[in-house]
Amino acid sequence: MTANPTGNPKGFEPVFCTIVPPHLQDQVAQSENRAVAVKARKSLERDAFERTRRRMTTVLGAPSAAPPSTADADQSPRRTLYDAQHRTDLPGRKVRGEGDEPGQDATVNRAYAGLGATFELYLQKYGRFSIDGEGLALDATVHYDQDYNNAFWNGEQMVFGDGDGEIFLDFTIPIDVIGHELTHGVTQYTANLTYFGQPGALNESMSDVFGSLIKQYSLGQTAAEADWLIGAGLLAPDVTGVALRSMKAPGTAYDDDVLGKDPQPADMAHYVRTGRDNGGVHINSGIPNHAFYILAETLGGNAWERAGQIWFDTLTGGELKQDALFPDFAKATVKSAQARYGGGEEYQSVLKAWEQVGVPTH
Question: Can 181 be counted among the known catalytic residues?
Fold first, then answer.
């Protein structure tokens, strides 16, 4: 049996996942504003390079993560922040380690806090010790490249661009972006959902769900108080939009001359069939996103509790197949709800949430 460099028992080959989808970058790259278009094209080229490098690392073998030391027996995070200094060599220059006091760089401080908030939710609410469940160190690089319009998880660490200042701002601003990307790591080490079509849309949706829950947990918000937006604060002031995606109302996050209109559907009646974006992984994720929002709103209270627990159980339970389609996932959530809560409110609410978005559960 071939050795698995990721340490994943399923032998997963991690993919390159960005918060800004390629279809959106493509749209910006066609802008009549040449300066904006050039920066978008540069970001697309960088993404393509990193995607290729991710594949090569998979083939050659990624460096093994150091196991937690004796000092980590208390299950504390191990965060290290690096500054790429607007270059592309990773990880860059170390600028903050675990327990170090905040410095003058607000981007570094936000990234450090976001890594911590993600670690805390998974540990305190779901009993998961870091991304891999075994205390994986959390590394992140900020100030990546020049005017880079994205943030990504490359299978080993987080990377944040500063944005171009015209379309996108600093990618460490929304804490849910940090949680979203790190959750790709959780999926990497658990359900290992194939990054194409419906399994890929589920992969993206899991990151949106837990990214939103990390934001809500850090702000102490109930489901009713949350905005359910992914990437709020990321769009520059002149952009007509509020975020990258809306879980509450998919398809309404932006409608802008440069970005175009948010293409996400809220139900299966409007499912988008496309060959772009790995079969629409960032587009059709709006459907399971909406189902989770409906469930959380129906159950009320803190969404990371009952609704989040059901989704977490489904993601990490070991029964979800890598090529799971929406109905497969929906059935699995029903099973998870029944296993943990019986046939009461939680079970019935999960059934109704999927019914509302048109995904069968039996």
Answer: yes
Q: Smallest Cα–Cα separation from 120: which of 132, 110, 128?
A: 128
pLDDT tens digit sequence for 243-267: 999 999 999 999 999 999 999 999 9
Sign of the CA dihedral 32, 254, 140, 7?
negative
305 class by beta-carbon count within 10 Å (0-12 exposed, 13-18 middle, 19+ buried): middle
The Cβ-side half-sphere exposure at 52, using a 13 Å CA radius, reads 6
Kindly give, in sequence order, each residue whose CB lies less than 8 Å from that of residue 1, ignoring residues fewer than 6 positions away: none
| Amino acid code (one letter) for 328 | D
pTM score, two decimals? 0.92
DSSP conformation letters of 58-100: HHH-PPPPPPP-GGGGG----EEEEE-TTS--SS-EEEEETTP
**Residue 64 φ then ψ, to 5°:** -70, 140
CB 119 within 8 A of CB 61: no
Please, are residues 184 and 263 in contact by the beta-carbon 8 Å criterion? Answer: no
Three-class DSSP labels, 302-324: CCCCHHHHHHHHHHHCCCCCCCC
CA 148 to chain centre: 18
Q: Which of 181, 204, 297, 346 is catalytic?
A: 181
Of 11 and 225, the structure prediction assigns the larger pLDDT to 225
Decide the pairing of beta strands 17-18 and 151-153: antiparallel
- The 10s digit of each residue's pLDDT in 118-138 is 999 999 999 999 999 999 999
Catalytic residue among 143, 184, 282, 290: 282
Task: Give the Cα separation of 188 and 173 in Å (integer).
Answer: 24
Residue 204 annotated among the catalytic residues of the structure: no
| Cβ atoms < 10 Å from Cβ of 335 | 18
**Residues whose CB falls within 8 Å of the CB of residue 55, separated by 6 or more in sequence, listed in order:** none
How do 158-160 and 151-153 pair as beta strands?
Answer: antiparallel
**Residues written for the chain:** 362
CA quadruple 323, 289, 23, 92: dihedral sign: negative
